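Design request, tokens follow.
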């Protein structure tokens, strides 16, 4: 398989998925609206005090990001499974892990990247001090690809189970705990004036490792689901 044909296959699968999602814009807006609703309502539950909100703001935003990634993740491969596209992908001459990477990339472009852009607004609503804004955006930028990759693995594993959303959440939530700890710790370090870059670099390393391994796990899960 030549490099040109691999690149053509990758861009083709990404363009196809983007076009499908653009026809259902609610799939893009719903996760973002969910995050904004959670961030807007949270101060009503704990009180508007800036000290309390600022201290827990990073954790709240990351938990909202995690839940929004799971929102609708059941449909990540579901329609392709029902119409036979997944089975066709397993028969393509291009490597299935490469095509799986394209789907992970599209998921991040539509869920992770908008969240990075929305981060300043979320930080403002939760009264996060300015000292933590940059670190929050950095953790979201390098950490949300992990959300997309792990979500894709879980979605591929449960795609043949019908209504597997609850099972998907149970499978994935424990895997997200280290990500939440390191991301929140990085923002906390920035707020107290210590170096946050070790946690950010660790997240970046975990993201690279996940993106290298996840396409193979997704491909294996797809083969199990369609056979």
């Amino acid at each position: 398989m030549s490099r040109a044909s691999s690149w053509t296959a990758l861009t083709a699968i990404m363009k196809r998925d983007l076009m499908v999602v653009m026809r259902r814009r609610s799939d893009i807006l719903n996760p973002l609206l969910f995050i904004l609703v959670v961030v807007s309502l949270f101060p009503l539950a704990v009180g508007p005090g800036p000290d309390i909100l600022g201290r827990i703001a990073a954790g709240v935003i990351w938990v909202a990001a995690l839940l929004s990634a799971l929102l609708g993740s059941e449909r990540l491969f579901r329609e392709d499974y029902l119409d036979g596209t997944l089975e066709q992908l397993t028969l393509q001459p291009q490597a299935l892990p490469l095509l799986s990477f394209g789907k992970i990339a599209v998921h991040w472009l539509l869920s992770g990247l908008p969240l990075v852009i929305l981060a300043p607004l979320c930080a403002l609503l939760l009264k996060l001090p300015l000292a933590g804004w940059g670190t929050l955006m950095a953790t979201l930028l390098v950490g949300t690809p992990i959300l997309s990759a792990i979500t894709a693995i879980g979605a591929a594993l449960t795609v043949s189970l019908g209504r597997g959303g609850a099972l998907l959440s149970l499978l994935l939530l424990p895997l997200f705990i280290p990500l939440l700890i390191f991301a929140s710790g990085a923002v906390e370090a920035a707020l107290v004036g210590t170096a946050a870059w070790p946690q950010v670099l660790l997240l970046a390393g975990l993201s690279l490792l996940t993106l290298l391994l996840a396409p193979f796990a997704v491909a294996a899960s797809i083969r199990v689901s369609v056979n």
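Comment from the thread starter after seeing the answer: thanks! The mean pLDDT is 83.
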